[in-house]
Amino acid sequence: MADAADAALPPPPAPTPAWRSTAAALVRSPRAMVAAAATVLIFPILAMLWLLLVSMGARRIARAAWGEGSAVVTAADGVSLAASAGLVVLGLASLAAAVCSICVAAWSKQADKAPALSDLTTPEDQPVLCVLMFGMFANLAFLLLTLVGLLLITFSHVKGSHAERSGYVIMDVAVFSLLVLNCFIVLPAMALFVWKRMYVIAWQLI
C-alpha cells in the first residue's frame, strides 16, 4: 500500500535556475534594475582604466627603447586615446544610471529594503580591503617620490647634471611602479571586491 501511495505522488517540481530568479526580481523592482545596471558599468570602467595604464607603461618603455616615433609608441598612443574616450562614454553612462537610480529611489516604496551600511563588508572581504589599503598608501608614496624627482629636475641649475639625471631616474621608477601597482594589484583587487559585493554596493553608493 505504501509503495502504491508513493507511486501516486507527483514528482517534485524542478528548482528554478538562479539567473531566472534574479531576472524576475530585477523586473519586479525598477530601482534594483537601475542600480544593477549602474553597478555593472563599474567593470568596463575598470577595464578601460587598466588599458589606459598598460598603454602608458608600454609607451614609456617603447620610447626609451626605440624612440618617440616608433610603431609601438604610436600603437600605445592609439590605445590610450581609445581608453580615454571609453572612460568618458562610460562615465557619462554611469552618471545617467546614477541619476535614474536616485529618481527611481525617490519615488520607490522599497527604500526601507536597502541593505544596511554595516552589510557592505564582511570578514571574508578583509584580505581584499587590506590589499586596497596597501595600494592606497603605496600610491601615495610613489606620488611623493615622483614629486621628489620633479623637484630635483626643477632646481638643477646645470643641464645634464647628476642631480637632473637622478631626478629623471627617480621619476621613471616612481611612475613605472605606479603603473605596475595599479595594473596588477589595485585594479584587480577592486574588481574582485565589486564582484563579491556588487548588489550591496549598488544600493549603498548610488
UniProtKB/TrEMBL annotation:
Keywords: Membrane, Transmembrane, Transmembrane helix. The chain crosses the membrane at residues 34-58, 78-107, 128-153, 173-195. The keyword Membrane applies. It comes from the Eukaryota. This is Uncharacterized protein.
